[in-house]
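Entry for heme C complex. Fields follow.
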Amino acid sequence: MRYFKIIALMILGVLGVMQFFRPAKNINTSPEAVANDITKVVAVPGDVQAILVKACNDCHSNNTHYPWYANVMPVGWILSNHIKEGKREINFNEFAVYPIKKQLHKLEEVAEQVERDEMPMSSYRRLHKEARLTDAEKKALMDWAKQARSELMAKNPPAATKQP
Ligand code: HEC
């Protein structure tokens, strides 16, 4: 019994210390945060934008809406890593600065990831009901990604858009 108490106190102590190490939050609501938004280079209809906002932007934009448990370590560290990795892969708020070939490739990936149910991440879907996309929402997102690719191809010179 005594050992149990000591171990429980040690675990509480470690958890307590963890709370002091908080990752910086991905929150930027200034106009500069969306200066290079994807909407600057391709049309994003309202229904598609709504899907991106509710299912993707927490990890793929400059502004995350954090749940309360993000304030509890080590959960906050895990979320922070997902956001960092997600933004590195594709940041819809920085999309306009990507070279055209990368833009085309990432749009292709959007359609693929959604089709394969790989995005939004399953752990995210479990905790965010609104991110469990219906078949119609998935189709809208995939159709848009394809449409946006065609739009970019048409707007840019063929040499710039040729895929390797
Ligand atoms: C909880 C965070 C999170 C959410 C929400 C999320 N993603 Fe991701 N996404 C990631 C992470 C982490 C990666 C990088 C690791 C990986 O590919 O699994 C990634 C990678 C990607 C990639 C790049 C794949 C590649 O190989 O180029 C695309 C495209 C993508 N996500 C699209 C989406 C779309 C579209 C949505 C919404 C329908 C979405 N993601 C929602 C975290 C997220």
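NOTE: The chain has a mean pLDDT of 96.
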